[in-house]
Write a structure and sequence with these properties.
The protein is mostly beta strands. Helix content is about 10%, strand content about 55%.
Length: about 350
């Protein structure tokens, strides 16, 4: 017997989903989708990305079952963000694995209910050096001070200064309605709740000597520099982001097997237990414009995406106190999507 108390959220969601769809014995089909998107900061035809964003690559695979009453789509993706700065740590690149499950129920009359679970887990970030105002601490060439610790809790740092770990878990419910409008063929409305779980450790926290903390660097004490920098690291206490999602999609022009299509997505945010550094976005919008061609059972799309406030609301793992200042900028990317139905 399966012990549900020992399973993670996505495992429970899958068991429940499969238990439901096995009873949907009516006409069904399977589909496989591959989606790849990328961004380079040198592309002048896209909005200038946030300063540290150099390139982005995202590859997603998903397989789905679509029945008369139920549907299930399971996806896995890898997001690579190349993030480079002028100060330490200079390379803050992020490699994120995402697992996603969506369960659909057909109400009839072209209306659907969608339940979703979205889990993101990046590779831990480990930095040898970190900038504390005008002071660089760590073991790199540019460091002003080197700090080490014999405390066993820092053994896995292997001489590095700071390690960061993170995870997000998103739960969503949406109502989707197919329409017969000239330019709007689908509308959706939903809500999402995302838990943000961050942790970090550094021997910097163990500095307690009044002499060291009182050392002055360009008018500021070491203690003040440490406090200011550590306060901008992701908060360790769990916080949540609630969002209302609504969107529209449709074909603008259709010629034979080729369509010019669009997708407009809107997100409204409410932060819960988040300790902001300055200001947080209250909304985000995303516009996708692309070309689609359908040949037999294959659908091929080429598209471009524009986000008004970076990736918040779409890639939850990218937002925290350390990155908060990057989310007043637009962001754009190009992509290709291939879907095969069988």
């Amino acid at each position: 017997m399966v012990d549900f108390t020992q399973m993670k959220g996505i495992g429970k969601f899958l068991i429940i989903s499969f238990s439901i769809i096995i009873f949907d014995s009516a006409r069904s089909e399977m589909q496989f989708t591959y989606d790849y998107s990328l961004m380079e900061d040198g592309w002048s035809f896209l909005p200038d990305p946030p300063e540290s964003f150099k390139s982005t690559k995202s590859a997603k695979y998903s397989i789905g079952y679509v029945g008369e009453k139920y549907g299930l789509i399971i996806g896995k993706s890898d997001l690579e963000l190349e993030l480079l700065r002028n100060t330490e740590p200079k390379d803050v690149s992020l490699d994120v694995t995402t697992d996603e499950v969506d369960l659909y129920y057909n109400f009839g009359e072209n209306a659907y209910l969608q339940l979703g679970f979205f889990n993101q887990k990046p590779v831990d970030q480990i930095f040898n050096c970190y900038g504390f105002g005008s002071l660089t601490i760590g073991s790199c060439e540019d460091s002003d001070i080197q700090i080490s610790s014999t405390n066993p809790i820092y053994q896995d740092l292997n001489g590095a200064l700071i390690s960061l770990s993170a995870e997000t878990k998103s739960y969503s419910i949406s109502y989707i309605k197919e329409l017969s409008g000239v330019f709007i063929q689908e509308a959706s409305l939903g809500i999402t709740s995302t838990e943000h779980i961050y942790d970090w450790k550094t021997p910097i926290e163990d500095i307690s000597s009044p002499f060291l903390l009182g050392l002055s660097f360009e008018g500021q004490t070491l203690g003040d520099l440490i406090d200011q920098t550590l306060n901008r690291l992701p908060q360790r206490d769990l916080w949540k982001l609630y969002q209302v999602n609504f969107g529209f999609k449709g074909d603008l022009i259709q010629r034979d097997r080729v369509s010019l299509f669009y997708e407009a997505s809107f997100r409204l945010f409410k932060f819960d237990d988040y300790e902001k550094v300055k200001e947080t976005p209250s909304f985000n919008t995303k516009l996708r414009l692309g070309l689609r061609t359908d040949v037999n059972k294959i659908s091929l799309e080429f598209y471009g995406d524009i986000y008004q406030h970076n990736l918040i609301g779409f890639q939850p793992i990218t937002f925290n106190q350390r990155t908060e200042h990057q989310f007043d900028r637009k962001y754009g990317e190009l992509g290709v999507n291939i879907t095969y139905k069988f």
